[in-house]
Design a protein that fits this description.
This protein has helices at about 10-25, 65-75, 100-110, 115-135, 150-160, 165, 175-180, 185-200, 210-220, 230-245, 290, 295-300, 305-310, 385-405, 410, 420-430, 470-485, and strands at about 5-10, 25-30, 45, 50, 60, 85-90, 95-100, 225, 250, 255-260, 265-270, 275, 280, 315-325, 335-340, 350-355, 365-375, 415-420, 460. It starts with a strand and ends in a 5-residue tail after the last helix. Helix 1 runs parallel beside helix 10 and helix 4 (about 115-135) crosses helix 9 (about 210-220). It is an alpha/beta fold. Pfam families: Amino_oxidase (PF01593).
Length: about 500
């Protein structure tokens, strides 16, 4: 008999879980607090310009990739050609180009540091070999940390002799391996790696889990994509699939209370509407979950989840800009990182995502929209005075850094607005504007991750704070695990 499933939050994790379960025949109701789907992968429109909420590129669309598997299961293929040149990485002393082809990429990196050629080649050989071994687990996609006998069985069933090679690295950081290869003092090289890792792992080379870092540094070679319009199209496809398979999708519904009943669960939204369910999947910000429950029920949540709900993560400052491309010598490339060398936060490192010329989903001919995002710490925004000052300082810092690389950029701007932490809190529901999930350090990654099992029967969590972590691939994977736990089968 079909189960009644309530999904709270239409981020990528919640949409993935809801779409898979609806396709599987369950009765799915999805409630979203905002008027848009996708959460941090959503969109908004100003005048004739459309902006992706976050500055990011498409991943996981290659054959066997997480999103490709989901869309194939839903019967909604999303074919795109991968980028051969993924992005430019501009640093104080070097300008790198991330190239899809692994050999060409290493050759290009070596050209910047010829004295370290053998060490760099040895380092990347290990990175790519490690990533290829880890990737053999992507098919069965075991959940970590395992919470049920079935999940332990799935994990042990996925283990092969080749995985023994990973054991020596299990409690290592990327910094440990850089030291092993004699690269710990090559600061420009490490800074380049840090720029890649802060965007995907929310931390740098010194502290990031080595096994996850290897995958993060390798995954661009598997396939990175420009998605016309933006990643919100992933959300819309899954939202359409839910309704096509008999599900109900309601926007502008904020769940204020979750309670257990004799028949399962009852949720109440801010309008007083009530919803009954056999199981609930929460894709709302993790920090909000304890407040939805009675104190007695909240106390039953797993300890890592409760600790995570009171922990800070990065916040962000985002610029949303529209430019007149005719005022530049050439159109902006779709993806670019710029690092000033001063660190990885407060405007010293940022990621730019620009619409391609001709992408009329985002901008009319002759214009491009640009989303620019930098990491920031919540402490810079905790008073009104600091908030306004930080927004002004970071906006100017970002624009100055861009102008140095793209002369005339300021003059090309026809629209500019900021997405500071309160805007992220208002539009995505994330307290203090926390985004990106927890840094993937040894104490919060892999077996130390937050499980999709909440600790309360038939209450599951998913999203970028849940294993395996941030990004659309991580959020979607957590949604897959929640859906599997309810469906009691693999699905994808």
């Amino acid at each position: 008999m079909p189960k009644n499933i309530l999904v709270i939050g239409a981020g990528i994790g919640g949409l993935t879980a809801g779409a898979l379960l609806a396709k599987n025949g369950e009765r799915v109701t999805l409630l979203e607090a905002s008027s848009e789907l996708g959460g941090c992968a959503g969109k908004f429109k100003r005048h004739q310009f459309l902006y992706p909420a976050g500055a990011t590129l498409g991943m996981g669309l290659e054959s066997g990739g997480i999103h490709e598997r989901i869309f194939r299961f839903l019967g909604k293929p999303f074919p795109l050609e991968p980028l051969e040149t993924v992005m430019e990485m501009i640093h104080p002393d070097h300008k790198f180009v991330f190239i899809k082809d692994r050999d060409q990429h290493v050759d290009q990196i070596v050209s910047h540091f010829p004295a370290y050629e053998s060490k760099i080649r040895s380092f990347y050989k290990e990175i790519y070999e490690t990533a290829s071994i880890v990737r053999t687990l992507m098919g069965p996609l075991p959940a970590l940390p395992p919470a049920t006998a079935k999940e332990w069985a799935a994990l042990t069933g996925a283990i092969r002799p080749v995985h023994v090679k990973l054991l020596q690295h299990f409690n290592k950081t990327l910094g440990n391996r850089l030291k092993h290869h004699g690269l710990e003092q090559l600061s420009a090289f490490r800074h380049m790696l840090d720029g890649l890792l802060i965007d995907s792992m929310q931390t740098g080379s010194e502290d990031v889990s080595y096994l996850l870092a290897a995958v993060a540094l390798d995954i661009y070679h598997e396939g990175a994509y420009y998605v016309p319009g933006g990643l919100y199209r992933f959300a819309e496809l899954m939202g359409d699939s839910i309704t096509e398979n008999g599900g109900v999708l309601k926007k502008r519904r904020t769940v204020t209370q979750l309670a257990q009943t004799d028949k399962g669960w009852q949720a109440t939204d801010h309008r007083g509407n009530q919803y009954q369910a056999d199981a609930v999947i929460v894709n709302a910000p993790l920090h909000l979950l304890p407040g939805m429950l009675t104190p007695e029920l909240a106390s039953k949540l797993k300890k890592p989840l409760l600790e995570g709900a009171t922990s800070e993560t990065w916040t962000t400052m985002t610029l949303y800009i529209a430019i007149d491309s005719s005022k530049l010598t050439q159109p902006l490339p779709p993806f670019r990182q710029i690092s000033t060398g001063a660190g990885m936060a407060e405007g010293a490192h940022f990621f730019m995502s620009a619409s391609l010329p001709g992408d009329t989903l985002r901008a009319p001919d002759g214009y491009q929209t640009v989303t620019i995002s930098t990491h920031s710490k919540a402490g810079f925004w905790d008073t009104q005075e600091k908030y306004e000052a930080t927004r002004e300082i970071l906006t100017e810092r970002l624009l100055q850094a861009i102008e140095q690389q793209i002369p005339g950029f300021r003059e090309s701007i026809v629209h500019l607005e900021t997405g500071a932490p309160k805007a992220w809190e208002r539009y995505t529901g994330r307290p203090n504007g926390f985004v990106g999930g927890f840094p993937q350090t040894l104490d919060s990654a892999l077996f130390n991750s937050i499980s999709h099992h909440s600790g309360i029967p038939n209450l599951y969590v998913c999203g970028d704070h849940v294993f395996p972590g941030g990004g659309t691939i991580g959020a979607a994977t957590s949604g897959i695990h929640a859906a599997r736990s309810i469906a009691l089968k693999r699905l994808v």
